[in-house]
Amino acid sequence: MKNKRFVLSNTQVILLSFFGTIFLGGLLLSLPFSAADGKAVPLTDCFFTAVTSVCVTGLVTVPVVQFSLFGQAVILLLIQMGGLGIVTFMCIFALALHRKMGMGDRLLLQDAFNLNGAGGLVKFIRRAVIGTLAVEGVGACLTMIAFVPRYGVKGVWYALFHAVSAFCNAGLDVLGTDSLISWQTSPLVCGVTELLIILGGIGFVVWWDVGRVIRERKGWRGLTLHSKIALSATAALLLLGTVVFLVLEHGNGATMGDLSPIHKIRMALFQSVTARTAGFAAVDQAGLAGGSVLFTCLLMFIGGSPVGTAGGVKTVTIVVLMAFAFATARGKNEVSLFSRRVPRQTLNKAVAVVCVSFVTVALSTLLLCLITPLDGLDLLYESVSATATVGLSRGITSRLPEAGKWIVMCTMYLGRVGPLSLAVAFGMKRENRNLVRDPEEQISVG
């Protein structure tokens, strides 16, 4: 009998590569010279920082300024790797060494970016990397205009760190402990940050599709169904979020009540943008009204668009799920969007992603409630933020007990790699799964 070799699936390789990068990053951050004062940061906080960086979340138990320049550089590299994907970096090194990419490598990339086909992947990766570096570079140059006059030469590093973190939707910064609250009246800083967040969160596929349509002068009709859904959902959520936050917070002195009308609109827009996976705070999240907290949770859960740097269940997933619900209510067996039929497999995946993510949020919140007496709404906010890899917090992350920090770490990891991917990677083998079918019986739902 031949010995069966143990071979990792593509999904398992992706999950383990994230885990390995987190472990190595945590060890580097635990070194004494990674701390600003030369005294090693507690190990749990180092691993928490590594997880939040690789998972591009933004929740922190210790501020980034507590790390030295070396430590901050490690964090920045982890953010960039987490934003583009560890597998992408592996393939970049392979291409740099002029190593040919086999079919296994291409399938790995296809799984990492959640693409439908393996064709043109090398070109896709090159364009994604070049586009990422170009956008981050422009963003850094623009924010230097504001940061250098205030921080001096350090402003160059601050601008670079901020641009990468914003584009990767990480929400980490080296500006202090109040995120962007001290910059809330700066149209330049807030505007550039919003643009970087949106460009990172809209997805690389949409970038190329919009560019193609512009070159070919085809207009809206020339876009793919994916791009139409992603762009429409993003615009609708940004507008809806701005209106809702403006209505709920315009008189709240703890957030934007004391600002001028124009700055209230800007802060409402910023909260709408950052809530959908970025994690930068221009207003105190602990001061938000109850309605704003719940609405922010909804936006965080939805997140950005697929094949980008954003988290959440993704805009396209939610739109497809809502269309499925409406079609079912009208007695239709098929779902169509923009005069295009959505495959049944896509509908099934959308249902699974939302359900599993919801269970992750519920379980994380329940566990946190069991081990800490902190306010339940704050813990829900924390859990949704971790699951959707957003990074917004109502100021309780550093107050969590040791066990609570590890729960949040696990939640961030699940949110980044996808709980559904984890189930597939370590679940039963696929072969023979559909050969035997159970008998069908009607049940009542709804």
Description:
It is a single chain. This protein has 446 residues and is mainly alpha-helical. The protein has one domain (10-422). The protein has 17 helices and two strands. It has helices at residues 10-29, 43-54, 69-84, 86-96, 103-113, 121-151, 154-167, 187-202, 204-216, 225-249, 261-274, 290-302, 315-329, 344-371, 376-387, 402-417, 419-425; strands spanning 335-337, 340-342. The protein has a two-stranded antiparallel sheet. A hairpin with a 2-residue loop joins strand 1 (335-337) and strand 2.
Structure described in brief:
With 446 residues, the chain is mainly α.
List the main descriptive attributes of the protein structure presented here:
446 residues; globular; two-stranded antiparallel ribbon; mainly alpha; 2 strands; 61% helix; 1% strand
What layout of secondary structure does this protein have?
Elements: H1 10-29, H2 43-54, H3 69-84, H4 86-96, H5 103-113, H6 121-151, H7 154-167, H8 187-202, H9 204-216, H10 225-249, H11 261-274, H12 290-302, H13 315-329, E1 335-337, E2 340-342, H14 344-371, H15 376-387, H16 402-417, H17 419-425
Protein structure class = mainly alpha
How would you describe the shape? Answer: globular
User: What is the β-strand count?
Assistant: 2
Count, helices: 17
